[in-house]
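ok new one. same drill as before - structure tokens go in, u give me an amino acid for every spot. 227 of them this time. try not to just spam alanines like last time pls lmao
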């Protein structure tokens, strides 16, 4: 593993991550509500158009939902896990909506469809071009995971939302390009992580909803170790 590759991946993550706090802040709203039009602390309205989504302005308007350096750390981890393979740039780009989804789900238990779709199509298309022979297994993995999670979501006292169902299917689809072991490790790790958090909350007697999106995304990273 070249240290230069890790450093470059981390620099890419740092550069791209500089634009995430404002985006995550504006999208961390309850289901059905539009993006935040103004800073909740100083009431300063965000500029119209693209300028309103850029990390700029007073510190209170930048949002603190995405910790600084998160995407940089993810980029470095991807470089370590994958090495110098053609799929690395694809996964580095996929990490952008992935980190956003994790932050938003932690903030308001919501996984916006547009971000899930961006993750699935934005990463799935180049992965399909790089490995056309894996399209069938990838689609099968996504369909099976989606059907399984949908069945769980329809159970009484469901612990999953439709956003979790869609994200689980999307990540299984993407991991399917790496092979069935990656799918199994990715989804299995997600459930282990979520179970660990649930157990910790039970021990601490802190009953509250647990976002499944971050565990799914962390599990997907673990799934890449099975490549």
């Amino acid at each position: 593993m070249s240290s230069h590759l890790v450093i470059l991946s981390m620099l890419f993550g740092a550069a791209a991550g500089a634009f995430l706090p404002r985006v995550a802040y504006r999208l961390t709203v309850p289901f059905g509500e539009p993006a935040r039009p103004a800073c909740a602390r100083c009431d300063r309205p965000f500029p119209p158009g693209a300028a309103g989504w850029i990390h700029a302005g007073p510190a209170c308007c930048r949002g603190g939902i995405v910790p600084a350096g998160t995407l940089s750390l993810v980029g470095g981890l991807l470089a370590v896990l994958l090495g110098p393979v053609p799929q690395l740039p694809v996964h580095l780009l996929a990490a952008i909506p992935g980190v956003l989804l994790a932050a938003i789900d932690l903030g308001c238990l919501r996984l916006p469809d547009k971000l899930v779709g961006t993750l699935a199509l934005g990463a799935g298309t180049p992965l399909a071009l790089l490995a056309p022979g894996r399209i069938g297994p990838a689609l099968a993995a996504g369909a099976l995971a989606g059907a399984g999670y949908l069945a769980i979501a329809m159970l009484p006292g469901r612990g999953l939302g439709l956003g979790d169902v869609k994200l689980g299917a999307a990540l299984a689809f993407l991991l399917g390009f790496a092979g069935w072991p990656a799918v199994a490790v990715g989804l299995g790790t997600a459930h282990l992580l979520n179970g660990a958090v649930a157990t910790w909350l039970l021990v601490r007697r802190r009953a509250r909803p647990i976002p499944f999106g971050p565990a799914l995304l962390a599990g997907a990273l673990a799934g890449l170790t099975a490549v």
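The chain has one domain: 3-226. and btw The chain has a mean pLDDT of 91.
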